[in-house]
Amino acid sequence: MEPNELYGRLREHLNNFLMGMPHEPTLMQMLKVMFPLDEAEIALKIPMADTKLSELEQQFPEVDNLEEILMRMVDRGTVFWNQAPGKEKVYRLMTGVGGWAETPFWGGRDTPQAREMAPLYKNMKTLAYSKALAEGAPLVRVIPVMESLEDSSAVLPYDELIPKIEATKFRAVAHCPCRHAANLRGEGCDHTVDNCLHFGTFARFMVEQDIAREISVEETIDILKAARSEGLVHVANNMDGHLESICNCCTCGDCYWLNTAKDINRDVLMESNYVAKADEDTCTLCGECEERCPMEAIEVDGHDCAEVDAKLCIGCGVCTICDEEAIKLVPRETIKTPPNLMEWASQRMEAFKQRKSE
Fold first, then answer.
1. pLDDT class of 151 with cuts at 50, 70, 90
2. 3-class SS at 176?
3. Chain centroid offset of residue 132 CA
4. Shortest CA distance to 79 belongs to which of 37, 109, 119, 44?
5. Which of 55, 176, 293, 311 has its CA 20 to 30 A from that of 70?
């Protein structure tokens, strides 16, 4: 099989899953970096659902060293593996975003692979890919900073991070792939890099692969507080009752979620159920909120009070660090409840069927 045909088929294989993989030149280049030819042939038959080694061996009777190749793909960051006590090893193909596109960067290393992927990672922010990630239900949503709420007693239960973190069995912190990739391109910012949070089975996998380190509940909360102080935006899975990751994002680091939402496709993330509102009696027009807003949703000049564009505001609360406490988050008129895991998968599946029928 010719290389271009092979990678085209691999792209189609990845496009058959809920995340989607449109035919974009940058994405094709990324596949060629992350999947050497022999591994790309194996990847064509690996599902994105946990599959036993014995089942995979039946699919590849001609491959004598399948487990060796799979573990090489695990080390490269394209395949996930797990082995529960007393159970057989299982493997699954990684997704793009939230998977093999980030694995070169999570460990914070300067490697040839990371160097090659860094400019591609920036260029993967396209309208076509953002549409694929947003279809049915966005992958992520904004979590507001609790201290930024005008009435903290009105916090919605699915926005309370601390109880969810306390309920997790395993936690890990990795480097922010967006900021680390930007650093490798010479385009980085001054924000902290090692504050990309992960939970559960995938977090344990990341620690085992030495691309993250295990942390306690207390350290997780401390990292969130520090991110809040830096003016970073909390972005988590768009699923009620399911916490897999929390990104702490900035637009100066060329963030996949924030910059894509700001410049290309707002639907790539779900805004929070809150919107910033300034108090004209206490606002001094200092401009700090305008400077901190990652979405350029606030204007000060020419106004008697900081003016918030509710259509641009994502309700993150980054703007609310104000000496006069003149700006706070208030509930939006329409409250959108995030789907649970089953609802999210169902919505994505319906959109997937529509995509495949077109």
1. low
2. coil
3. 14
4. 44
5. 176
Query: Residue 94 and residue 80: Cα distance in Å, rounded?
Result: 6
Give the three-class secondary structure for 112: helix
Per residue, what are the HEC states of 132-169? HHHCCCCCEEEECCHHHECCHHHCCHHHCHHHHHHCCC
pTM over 0.90: yes
Residue 134 and residue 51 share a domain: no
Statement to judge: residues 288 and 247 lie in one domain: no
Q: Are 67 and 200 contained in the same domain?
A: no
Q: Which of 70, 93, 116 is the last residue of a domain?
A: 93
121, 139: one domain: yes
196-199 β-sheet, strand order: 213-214, 171-174, 196-199, 245-249, 233-237, 140-143, 269-270
Closest CA to 124 of 34, 234, 199: 34
CA distance 96 to 103: 10
φ/ψ (deg, to 5) at 293: -65, 120
Do 173 and 202 contact (CB within 8 A), yes or no? no
What is the DSSP track for 212-234? SEE--HHHHHHHHHHHHHHTPEE
Per residue in 61-104, pLDDT tens? 999 899 999 999 999 999 999 988 888 899 999 999 889 999 99
Q: Which of 93, 121, 153 is the last residue of a domain?
A: 93
Of 81, 92, 293, residue with least CA distance to 201: 81
- Into how many domains does the chain fold? 3
- How far is residue 115 CA from its own chain's centroid? 20
Output Rg (C-alpha) for the chain, integer angstroms: 21
The span from the CA of 224 to the CA of 192, in Å, is 11
Domain around 289: 274-334
